[in-house]
Amino acid sequence: MTQQHDESGLQPEMTLDDFRRRLADLPTAPPKEAAILSDLDRTRLAEVRRAWPKLPTETRRDLVTEMNELGEENIAYNFGRVLKLALRDADATVRAMAIEALWEDEGEDILAYLLDEGLSDTDLPVREAATRALARFSQLAAEEEIDERWVQPLRGRLLALVRGDDSTEVRRRALEALSVFTEDADVTGEIARAYASPDAIIQMSALYAMGRNLDQRWLDTIIKEMDSDSPGLRYEATKASGEFGDRRAVPQLIERLGDDDREVQLAAIGALG
After folding, report:
1. pTM score, whole prediction
2. How many whole angstroms separate alpha carbon 76 and alpha carbon 12?
3. Using N-to-C axis directions, what is the helix angle for 124-142 and 168-178, rounded to 10°?
4. Digits of tens for pLDDT over the chain (273 positions)?
5. If you ran DSSP here, which 8-state letter would residue 35 be given?
6. How many CA atoms are closer than 13 Å to the CA of 252, on its beta-carbon side?
7. Is 228 helix (H, G, I), strand (E, B) or coil?
8. Cα(151)–Cα(92) distance, rounded to whole angstroms?
C-alpha cells in the first residue's frame, strides 16, 4: 500500500527495500508518488540512476512534471539530483522539461550544462528551454552574483545565438537574456536591429529587452509603441515603461488603463504602481 504524506507534505522515512519497491512501481503509481524522489542520499540516487532509463518514456515525463509541480507547492521538496539526471535523458521532451523544472537552480554546474550541452542539443525544444533558462544567469551576472569567469562566456554565447540562424524562439529569448548587459554597443545594436525586424514577435522581444536594458535611448520608442495597433506591442511597451519609472510615460499609461486588452490594462496598473 502506498504510504501517506506526513503533515508537511513530504514522504515519511522508508527502508531501502521499500524505496526500491516503490521505485519499481512508479510506472503504475498514483499521482504525487514522485515525492519519493526528493532529497535523495547517495545510495537512493544510485538506485534511481539504474532504474531511470528503464522506466517508460511517458512515466519519465510524468515524473518530471510531478516533481516540478510538487516543488512549486512545497519548498521543502528537493528534486535537484534527480532532475539533473533527467537533463541527459534519451528523450528530448524529458530533457527540456528537466531544464524548466530546475528554474530555481543557480548553480555553476547548471550554467555549464546550459552553455554547453543545452545549447548544443540536437533537439530544438531543448535548445529553446536552455536559452530561456539562461535569462536568470544573465540577471545574476548583471547583479555581479556569479563568478566573473562566467560573464564573458555567457555574454558571448548569447550574442552568438542572437546573431545566429536558430529558431525565432532561441534568438528572441537570447536577446531578452542578453539585454541586461548595459552600456554595451553590441547589445544595444542587436536590440535596435530586432526592433527594426518585420517580425512582430521579434519586435515584442525588442521592447521587452529595452525595458531590461534601461538605456534612455529607448524611452521615446517605448512611449510611442504604447499607442501601437498591436496589443502585443502595447503590452510589452507598457511593461517596459514600468521598468524605466519615468514620469514622461504617465499620460500614456493612464490611457492604457482603458485599453481594449485586459493584459495591457493590468500591465498599465503595474507600471503606474
Report:
1. 0.89
2. 13
3. 10
4. 344 444 344 555 789 999 999 999 999 988 889 999 999 999 999 999 999 999 999 999 999 999 999 999 999 999 999 999 999 999 999 999 999 999 999 999 999 999 999 999 999 999 999 999 999 999 999 999 999 999 999 999 999 999 999 999 999 999 999 999 999 999 999 999 999 999 999 999 999 999 999 999 999 999 999 999 999 999 999 999 999 999 999 999 999 999 999 999 999 999 998
5. G
6. 26
7. coil
8. 28
Q: Is the dihedral of CA 29, 33, 38, 44 positive or negative?
A: negative
Give the position of cell 538605456: 215
| 40: its cell numbers | 535523495
Q: How far is residue 61's CA from residue 68's CA, in Å, rounded to a whole number?
A: 11
Residue 38: all three cell numbers together? 526528493
User: Which three cell numbers mark 79?
Assistant: 528534486
Torsion, Cα of 21, 72, 168, 192 (10° steps): -150
Round to whole Å and give the CA distance between 60 and 92.
11
Gap between the Cα atoms of 169 and 192, Å rounded: 18
In one-letter notation, the amino acid at residue 244 is F
